[in-house]
Hints:
By secondary structure, this protein is mainly alpha-helical. It is 62% helix and 0% strand. It has five helices and no strands. The radius of gyration is 11 Å and the shape is globular. Residues 1-21 form the signal peptide. One of its GO terms (biological process) is cytoplasmic translational elongation.
Amino acid sequence: MHLKNMKMLAAFLLAVLGGNAALSAADLKKILGSVEAEADEDRIELLLSEVKGKDISTALTYHYCTTAFILHPQPRP
Length: 77
């Protein structure tokens, strides 16, 4: 697992669990920037597309975000 992907996923989960149900790419970039972490726009868009319209607990249960995001570290063509 790549540390950059884990940081992005952690930022996403913390924001959603903190009450931001409509998280945007800009929100994730702001969170990552606040801790001086690199924000890869393609990876952010992939993560958000994988969980769009899904309840976070459902997404975690069915690994929508983890399998697409962590196990496939390169952006899809």
